């Protein structure tokens, strides 16, 4: 699959990625373990969701040291609040096999972020499938880039 993800380093790049300036983007992958220089705003994220993009939350920083975990909770809670739980895709971002978790563990992480259990499970199944379909239709249909 040819899934194109953008990891914005500034608010300007985040706005460009979410507003649909780049047609070839399927997902916005946010660095959850680092401090951002911007906030995830509902208007910006709403543009991304309207354009069919999804936002990726990697859970491996939640398994790291205390400061990274604290930053992950802050960033992930901001993204969940801005998206209201829609359009999220959970990924591992694991560097080792021992960092992988079961889908139920990830659903529990979502519930810790005040995310509905159903929306948390959709981030593992339906939303991930939607990203693949978005990438497929972008690459293999008549209106392809």
Walk me through the structure.
With 145 residues, the protein is α/β, with parallel strands linked by helices. It has one domain (5-140): Metal-dependent hydrolases (TIM Barrel, Alpha-Beta Barrel), CATH 3.20.20. It has six helices and four strands; from the N terminus they run E-H-E-H-E-H-E-H-H-H. The chain has helices at residues 11-18, 42-50, 66-83, 103-112, 117-122, 126-140, and strands at 5-6, 27-29, 54-58, 88-91. A four-stranded parallel β-sheet has the order 1-2-3-4, with helices on both faces. Strand 2, helix 2 and strand 3 (54-58) form a beta-alpha-beta unit. The longest helix is centred in the middle third of the chain and has 18 residues, at 66-83. The model has no long low-confidence stretch (mean pLDDT 83).
Quick take:
With 145 residues, the chain is an alpha/beta fold.
Annotate the secondary structure layout.
Blueprint: E1 5-6, H1 11-18, E2 27-29, H2 42-50, E3 54-58, H3 66-83, E4 88-91, H4 103-112, H5 117-122, H6 126-140
Parallel strand pairs: 1-2, 2-3, 3-4
Helix pairs in contact: 1-2, 2-3
């Amino acid at each position: 699959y040819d899934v194109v993800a953008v990891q914005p380093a500034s608010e300007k790049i985040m706005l460009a990625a979410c507003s649909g300036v780049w047609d070839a983007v399927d997902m916005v992958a946010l660095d959850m373990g680092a401090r951002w220089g911007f906030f995830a705003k509902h208007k910006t994220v709403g543009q991304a969701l309207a354009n069919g993009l999804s936002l990726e939350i990697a859970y491996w920083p939640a398994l790291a040291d205390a400061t990274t975990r604290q930053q992950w909770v802050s960033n992930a809670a901001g993204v969940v609040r801005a998206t209201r739980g829609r359009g999220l895709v959970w990924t591992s971002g694991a560097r080792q096999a021992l960092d992988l978790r079961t889908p139920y563990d990830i659903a529990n992480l979502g519930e810790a972020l005040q995310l509905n259990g159903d929306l948390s499970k959709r981030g593992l199944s339906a939303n991930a499938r939607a990203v693949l379909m978005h990438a497929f239709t972008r690459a293999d249909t008549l209106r392809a880039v």
